[in-house]
Write a structure and sequence with these properties.
Order of helices and strands: EEHEHHEEHEEEH
Number of helices: 5
Radius of gyration: 16 Å
Strand content: 25-35%
Structural class: alpha+beta
Largest sheet: 8 strands, antiparallel
Shape: globular
Number of domains: 1
Helix content: 25-40%
Amino acid sequence: MKILDNLIMDFSFPGTFKAAAKKEVEILQCFLSEEKQLVFLQLESNLYPDANSEITGVNEEIKEIVLKNVILKTKEKLLDLNYETNKDEIFYWFSPRTKEEIIKIIENKYYSYKCIILEKGKNIKEYDYLLHITEHFEYDEYDECRALIVDERVDNSFEIDVKPKIEKLFESIME
């Protein structure tokens, strides 16, 4: 793992799939505090797929996590997260409450997902960080790798508030 500005390269961990997902959640928790929550987006078409659709939908366990942790349900596309949707799509913004729920969400979307760090009670558009985890990222001379891309609302907040926590945690994870 290498941190370059607001980019974490080789964002993957040794061990089993489940062990790697748990370690990834530990990194994501470095962005959190009592006032801040991890928020994901799920499309209604994934929760309740049409029988005639090519969309297979999420499994029942993920659906249950989403529905019990919804913080906002809206038809308005609040952020451009590059999701293909139909014009009548409903967006479910949800915040898993436990580490186990976050692990299940990560396992379900492991290869590529986006989420935000949001202060509790704030509007979705007022997120502190937009996190994008992508599987096939290319950066300058580096080979293709898995990466965590951090978009911060306040300049240098990642560098000051989060990066030291991640570096400290990474040392203990890799021991």
